[in-house]
C-alpha cells in the first residue's frame, strides 16, 4: 500500500468512526424521548451480552480433566460475589480476572 493509500484509508476510517459516534445525536436529539423499543433494548441488552460472554468464555472449559474447571468456577463466583457486594462492573471483572490468572499461573 502506498503512502497516499494509507492516508486515504486512515481518513475514511476516521470519518466513519466519527459518523457512528455522531449519528446517535442526529437520530435522537437532546430533549426528545427515544422510542420505547430503544429504551427496552437498552435495558435488556447488557444482560444478554453478559450471558453471551459467559457462554463464550466457558464453552471450551474441560470439566472431565484436570483442573476440572475449578479456576473458572472460583473466578466466576468471585465476580458474582464482588458484583453483588460493590455493584461495580469494572471492579468485578478486574478482580475475577486477577483471581483467575493467579489460579492458573500459581496453583493449577
Folded structure, characterized:
- This is AzlD domain-containing protein.
- InterPro entries: Brnchd-chn_aa_trnsp_AzlD (IPR008407).
- The chain is an all-alpha fold.
- It folds into two domains: about 1-30; about 35-105, no CATH class.
- The protein is about 80% helix and about 0% strand.
- It has four helices and no strands.
- It has helices at about 5-25, 35-60, 70-85, 90-105.
- Helix 3 packs antiparallel against helix 4 (about 90-105).
- The longest helix has 25 residues, at about 5-25.
- It is extended and about 50 Å long.
- The mean pLDDT is about 95.
Can you describe this structure in just a few lines?
The chain is an all-alpha fold and 108 residues long.
How are the elements arranged and paired?
Layout: H1 3-27, H2 36-58, H3 70-86, H4 89-107
Helix pairs in contact: 3-4
User: How many domains comprise the coordinates?
Assistant: 2
- Taking all Cα atoms into account, the compactness measure Rg is 21 Å
Q: Helix coverage percent of residues?
A: over 70%
Q: What structural class should be given to the helix and strand makeup?
A: mainly alpha
Strand content: under 5%
According to DSSP, the number of beta strands is 0
Question: What is the string of SSEs from the N terminus onward?
Answer: HHHH
Number of helices: 4
Low-confidence stretches: none
Shape: extended
Distance between the termini: 46 Å
Mean model confidence by pLDDT: 93
Query: Major sheet, described briefly?
Result: none
InterPro entries: Brnchd-chn_aa_trnsp_AzlD
Transmembrane segments: 6-30, 37-58, 64-82, 89-107
Pfam family, one: AzlD
Keywords: Membrane, Transmembrane, Transmembrane helix
